[in-house]
# Entry
Amino acid sequence: MTILSSEQIAELKQKLSEKGDKVVREELANGIYGEGRKKIVENWLEEFEREKLETRFQQELEQREQIFHEQMQKEEKRFQAQLAVSLS
# Structure
């Protein structure tokens, strides 16, 4: 088993990023990566999935915050309208 330097690992991860997760998964399933690179590739895929989930979570959170903000604006307008009616 060959031990990779940190520079080689960084290069490998860059190449994986350029290929994309679908291609990397196919290559991994086909045994393209040797024993020395297999674990790095698996770790890269796990990290990729975590980042994808984090991005999706962040987007959903931002959408919910926007919806909440819009609802609060509507409630404020409704309240102001009711206040104007009761004052007149």
